[in-house]
Every structure is written in structure tokens, then in C-alpha cells.
Amino acid sequence: MPKTPNYFKNKTIFITGAASGIGKSTAMIFAREGSNVVATDIDEKGASVIADQVVQAGGNGVGVHCDVTDRNSVEKAVSLGLERFGKINFLFNSAGSAIKRAKFLEIDEDLWDQTYNLNVKGTFLCMQVVIPHMLSEGKGVIVNMASNATRTGGAAKSPHYASAKGAVHTLTIGVGREFASRGVRCLSLSPSAVDTPFQDISSKEMLDASIEGNPMKRMGTPDEIAEMVLFTCSDACEFINADTLYLTGGSKA
Fold it and tell me: Active site includes 7?
């Protein structure tokens, strides 16, 4: 919980990948707190649906198309968010995917490039566009989605994704350390398997093994990750910066 009552009321969060999964849950949890939500996704219709749900839940929402791999698209989405709400207090880079599961020798250059464009370039572009606005306000929080796969290497499942999320983690450290003295914090979250549409690319055997290997015998839920986004953006967490938080239920895989 934040230290200050109604801390999130009328503050604005910019969320990528907001049409589903963890991004969607985060939009709804910030709506619960009375926040302004810029729900962005490459699926513009899906983003608009979430924005409507945000309004119904007590927040203010706008759905915006955003292809995070394209700077012009990101700049347009950020401009629309600023035009609607005046400022961006929080950025949650939720958009990401392994694209498909593959063992190391099965990864072709196209899969490698797609994975890095979405997960790394997308995070880089959104931060680079939003940070100047946060600096002008003297305060802001960025939360990036990394992954527990950075500890396992995605061996025999998705080393391309693990590598990309490792890059996100490293970029998070650099950004967090560079801008902390100017009021902008940057951190990442590293969950193990979470029950979202992301898992559609996983086989039943892979999911069963993940659940069996978890001391809690289940996957995480999108709401559990989203609540941590809320917490880390709050004034109760102002010393968390340039690091990742593992949300795994005790799982190492």
C-alpha cells in the first residue's frame, strides 16, 4: 500500500500491451485506485475496450494504438496520452513475447530479430520517449517486464526470449542509475510462468512441468504481478531502483 491515501488518484500510467494479460490487469488495478490510464496496444480495438473498462471501474482511460517497435507510433501514443491527461507519472512496459518456443539450434535470424525488436527495442523506445516528460516534472517511475528466464537461460525452451529479457534487465539498471538523482526510478519485475495468453505458445507438457516444479504448484496470476506494479510505483517503494524483483512462488525454473 502507498504511504499516502489516494496516492494514485488522478495520476497517469502509460501501459504497453494493455489489451491482455498483465497489462490488462495493471490497467484495471490502477483504475481501482482512481488513476488515469493510457492503455496502449498494437491491437487498438482491444486497447479501447480496456479503456472503457477502466472508466467503468472508476478511473479515466483512453485506448491508443501503439506499435512499440516503431518510434513514430510510440511518440504519437505518448503525445495523445499527454494531450488527454497532461502528464505521465508511471510507465509500465508490459508488451513482450517469446514469439514462439524454440531450442537454441532452432532459432533463426527472423525469430531472433522479432524477439529483440519487441522486447528490447520496444522497451528502449518507450523509455526514451517518456523519460524527458518525467524529467520535466522532476519525478516518475518506470517498471519494465523482465523474466525469471534470465536466471535459467530459457534452456531448451526459449533462449532467445531469455536473452532479450536479460537485455531489458541490464537496460533497466543503466536507466535507473542514470536518472535516479533527477527523480526518475526504473526497475523491472521478473516473474516465473504467469497464467496469461503468453502461455498459448507453451505445450501442455511444458506448463505441467512448470507447475510441478513450483513449490506453490501453480502459475502466477496477472493480478498478482499487477499489484506489484502498483506497489513499486507507490511512495512506499522510493528506494527500489535499478534492480529486478523476482515473483516466482519460490520456483527456480
Answer: no
The number of distinct structural domains making up the chain is 1
Among candidate residues 7, 116, 161, 246, the one labeled active-site is 161
| CATH number of residue 71's parent domain | 3.40.50.720
Cβ neighbourhood burial of 175 (10 Å; 0-12, 13-18, 19+):
buried
Range of the domain at 72: 12-247
For residue 4, being part of any structural domain is answered with: no
Has residue 61 been placed in a domain? yes
Residue-level pLDDT at 202: 74
Decide if 252 is inside a domain: no
Pairwise CA distance, residues 209 & 157, whole Å: 12
Q: What is the DSSP string of 193-210?
A: -BSSGGGGGS-HHHHHHH
What CA–CA distances, in Å, run from 53 to 24, 27, 221? 10, 9, 19
Taking the C-alpha atoms of residue 38 and residue 36, their distance in angstroms, rounded to an integer, is 7
Evaluate whether residue 157 is within a structural domain: yes
Strands (E), the chain: 12-16, 36-41, 60-65, 90-93, 140-145, 184-191, 244-247
Q: Which three cell numbers stand for residue 248?
A: 516466482
Residue 209 in this model has a pLDDT that exceeds 90: no
Decide: 203 and 237 in contact? Cβ < 8 Å.
Answer: no
**pLDDT of 149-175, one tens digit each?**
999 999 989 999 999 999 999 999 999
Name the pTM for this structure: 0.96
Task: Give how far Cα 195 sits from Cα of 25, 41, 96, 192, 200, Å.
Answer: 12, 19, 15, 10, 10
Q: Is the pLDDT at 1 greater than 80, yes or no? A: no
